[in-house]
Write a structure and sequence with these properties.
Number of domains: 1
Number of helices: 5
Bound molecules: magnesium ion
CATH architecture: Alpha-Beta Complex
Radius of gyration: 16 Å
Strand content: 25-35%
Number of strands: 18
Structural class: alpha+beta
Oligomer: single chain
Helix content: 10-25%
Largest sheet: 6 strands, mixed
Strand order of the largest sheet: 4-3-15-8-9-12
CATH topology: Fumarylacetoacetate hydrolase, domain 2
CATH superfamily: Fumarylacetoacetase-like, C-terminal domain
Length: about 220
């Protein structure tokens, strides 16, 4: 039986992760590169916590895919749980931030989209959620003004700023918690900027968010 890393490190403690909520098309330029437009309201899907790997880990390309893409995202670590959280109170529910990679089997996703089928296999495979150590919320003055970047084998692939995000962290928390309750340890990955691209076996992915941290993983 495989041992999964279902926690994220925050300061000196391990926070057990619950569900992983992932926003989609929350940066306009990425929505456009996907041949789409930004949704009217935040839209999201879920990844299982068994998808988590840590810095220094390996992303394993799923058997059925030959086109895995990287997406670097600001991850919000929920502290206090709640349902139907108003926007004005939403930031009281955040305990930290981390860098997360929403690894995506783009070929499986394209097939699922076309057939009107769910994205679970394309988005939820083992190792599809590399996450950095988290920093406490007190360390981040403005989550909406952070440099966000990703390199493959040392070459720039994604570089943007969280100011380009369509929704604020508070708006996202309020919206998601209006549909499904949030619990301590839940993670919300807030979507990726433009510049997604394919990775192949042997590649090294390095990504970071200013003031939060970096993560480096290999692709197998
Ligand atoms: Mg994503």
């Amino acid at each position: 039986m495989e041992m999964f890393l279902t926690f994220v490190k925050l300061g000196g403690k391990k926070v057990e992760v619950g569900k992983i909520v992932c926003l989609l098309r929350s940066y306009r330029a990425h929505a456009e590169e996907m041949g789409s437009s930004a949704p009217e309201k935040p839209e999201f899907f879920l990844k299982p916590r068994t998808a988590i790997i840590h810095d220094g880990g390996e992303v394993v390309i799923p058997r059925d895919s030959s086109d895995v893409h990287h997406e670097v995202e600001l991850a919000v670590i929920i502290g206090k749980g709640g349902a139907r959280i108003p926007v004005e109170k939403a930031m009281d529910h955040v305990q930290g931030y981390a860098v997360m990679l929403d690894m995506t089997a783009r070929d499986l996703q394209a097939r699922a989209k076309k057939a009107g089928k769910p994205w679970a296999a394309a988005k939820g495979f083992d190792t599809s959620a590399p996450i950095s150590d988290a920093v406490p919320v007190s360390q981040v003055t403005d989550p909406r003004n952070l440099e966000i970047w990703l390199k493959v084998n040392g070459r720039d692939r994604q570089r943007s700023n969280t100011s380009m995000m369509i929704y604020s962290v508070a708006e996202i928390i309020s919206h998601v918690s209006g549909i499904m309750s949030l619990e301590p340890g839940d993670i919300i990955a807030t979507g990726t900027p433009e510049g997604i691209s394919q990775v192949v076996s042997g590649d090294t992915i390095e990504a970071g968010i200013g003031g939060i941290g970096t993560i480096r993983v290999r692709v197998r």
